[in-house]
Design brief:
Layout (H helix, E strand, L loop, with lengths): L3 E2 L5 H15 L6 E10 L2 E11 L7 E6 L4 E5 L4 H19 L3 E2 L2 E2 L7 E3 L5 E4 L4 E3 H5 L10 H5 L4 H21 L9 E4 L4 E3 L21 H25 L10 H4 L9 H8 L4 H9 L6 H22 L1
Antiparallel strand pairs: 1-2, 2-3, 3-4, 4-5, 5-9, 6-7, 8-9, 10-11, 11-12
Helix pairs in contact: 5-6, 6-9
Length: about 325
């Protein structure tokens, strides 16, 4: 469901309302702002927001607490409808995997989903998944030589959580391949305390890539270490079944029939078809088999992001 200001009439007024809301939220950390109009999201109405954090990234996104209440959102000052559409596609993939009863151990193969709310061309709100941390956050305070154990330690070595991790890695890899999700790095891969690994930020999908990109299919070393060899073998086998569960009719690209039924993807169907036409089960199996290997591109991307974060922080101090 799209989130809209509670009072809107006509596209011009809606656009003006979206721009006014975006401007009101572009405030420094710690400020409390009164929204220009009441905001209704998923049946709840909000009238103010507290700016909890300004991200030191190019987007300058904000972490918000909408009030009344304690729900957290990321405010992104851009059009998030493409991400909204990708999230709808993820839910469609989950339905197919549920129908085919795909499990690793006792855990179902399912991709984590969350609310993405387009507010017009200048603003979108993304629901924050509680009890989750990025892989970068998991490495904070840990010596470099021990970072490979950060996921295993975060999950306490618990067998059920590790099975959940394995099932979610299968969903993460398969959905990433089918939807062409790119721009992966340690700031947009998150781990829930129950073991779910999931991706956030879907700005690059269906063939779109940033200037500096990591491989489309990869498993961070800390995740591979946590899984261990037996669970990783289970993940590889489950990935093959997960792609087959999305299969199309003979002569159609893999997953095309599944994705073509997602209404939110209507505006992107040409790109979806172009992307799925490049897919094959053999290529996917090959990429999954090599997903745990170290790559220079991924290391360089994470290093570059750390450098940008450091430079930004230094300039703000000055």
């Amino acid at each position: 469901m799209l989130a809209t200001p509670s009072a809107s009439s006509g596209s011009r007024e809606a656009l003006a309302g979206s721009e006014a809301l975006a401007k009101s939220l572009e405030r420094p950390e710690g400020e409390h702002v009164l929204l220009p109009k009441a905001l209704r999201i998923a049946g709840r109405e909000y009238r103010s927001a507290k700016i909890l954090r300004e991200f030191r990234t190019k987007s300058r996104a904000r972490l918000l607490q909408l009030e009344p209440g304690s729900v957290l959102f990321i405010a992104k000052f851009e059009n998030v409808f493409p991400e909204y559409a990708v999230m709808a596609a993820l839910r469609q993939l989950n339905k197919h995997w549920q129908k085919h009863r795909l499990f690793i151990g006792s855990e179902p193969v399912q991709a984590s989903t969350f609310g993405v709310f387009p507010m017009g061309p200048a603003l979108g709100l993304v629901e924050v998944v509680p009890h989750s941390r990025t892989l970068r956050e998991l490495s904070e305070g840990i010596p470099f030589g021990e970072r490979q154990y950060r996921v295993l330690r975060a999950l306490g070595g618990d067998s059920k959580r590790l099975d959940r991790l394995a099932a979610s890695v299968c969903a993460y890899l398969t959905s990433g391949y089918v939807l062409g999700i790119r721009d992966g790095h340690d700031d947009n891969l998150m781990l829930h305390r129950d073991g779910n690994l999931f991706r956030v930020d879907f700005g690059f999908a269906f063939g779109r890539t940033p200037e500096i990109d990591a491989p489309g299919i990869f498993v961070p070393n800390a995740v591979a270490v946590a899984l261990g060899e037996p669970r990783w073998r289970q993940v590889m086998c489950a990935c093959k079944e997960a792609l087959q569960a999305l299969g199309s009719r003979p002569g159609r690209p893999p997953a095309w029939d599944c994705l073509a039924k997602v209404p939110e993807l209507k505006a992107f169907l040409h790109d979806v078809h172009e992307h799925t036409s490049t897919l094959s089960s053999q290529n996917f199996e090959y990429q999954v088999a090599h997903a745990t290997e170290w790559t220079l591109q991924r290391a360089a991307k994470n290093t570059l992001r750390e450098a940008v974060r450091y430079i930004t922080a230094e300039s703000e101090v000055k």
